[in-house]
Design a protein that fits this description.
- The N terminus is likely disordered.
- The chain has 212 residues and is mainly β.
- It has a single domain, classed as outer membrane lipoprotein receptor (LolB), chain A.
- A 12-stranded mixed beta sheet has the order 7-6-5-4-3-2-1-12-11-10-9-8, with helices on one face.
- It has 1 helix and 12 strands.
């Protein structure tokens, strides 16, 4: 059986906050992965953010889905994020709203508004690994991962799409606590943004690729 690899391409119209991870590992200039990702968090997480996003979901066989959405994010007094996502297209998901409230020391709260039903539903912990709005993303993918949950190593430095990047591997500290065995991220050194993320399944095989 051939396992498909899902490729996501997020086209940024205004600004989209990066998915943030922390690191350990060091490079030739003695900077650690954690310091790199702290810079990412600082530079990519203003107090308020508004983004218009086109999400192109391309499967290995070439099948493509397009989602248009708007995203608002703000930080509360404790520095925790509150994110609202509203889907604009296609019509099947238009006006669906997704609210994420980041918590310290416990999983984020997630709520989804379904316009066809005119009701709000809380996403339970047991449903976090299910498909998010018909995409290959899961609800857990949409949450903010705690920076201390993983062990992070800078694998190398290399060029990617014209940017000099740190390549960082992130492995969960607790086995089985996350539905990926590891993620590998390309971080632009001068911009401190994540340009690419590879996600590996529990068999350590590449499952998804997210590019910004």
């Amino acid at each position: 059986m051939i396992k498909k690899i899902i490729v996501f391409t997020a086209l940024i119209i205004l600004i989209m906050p990066a998915v943030v991870f922390a690191g350990s590992g060091k490079t030739s200039n003695n900077i650690s992965g954690r310091v790199v990702m702290e810079k990412v968090q600082k530079e990519s997480s203003p107090k308020t953010t508004h983004a218009a996003v086109q999400l192109d979901i391309i499967e290995k066989n070439g099948t493509q889905k397009i989602r248009l959405l708007e995203m608002w994010m703000e930080k509360d007094k404790k520095g925790l994020n509150r994110t609202l996502i509203i889907f604009r297209k296609p019509s099947a998901v238009k006006d669906t709203r997704f609210l994420i409230i980041q918590n310290k020391g416990r999983p984020d709260d997630q709520h989804i508004y379904l316009p066809a039903l005119r009701r709000v539903r809380r996403i339970s912990a047991s449903a976090r690994n299910k498909s998010f709005m018909g995409t290959e993303f899961t609800y857990e993918d949409m949450s903010t991962r705690n920076t201390d949950d993983d062990t992070h190593t800078i694998l190398r430095e290399e060029n990617y799409n014209g940017y000099k990047c740190y390549v960082i591997e992130s492995v969960p500290k607790t086995k089985g606590a996350y539905h990926y065995s590891k993620t590998v991220k390309w971080v632009a050194k001068d911009k401190w943004i994540i340009l690419k993320v590879e996600m590996y399944d529990t068999d350590n095989k590449l499952k998804k690729v997210l590019t910004m």
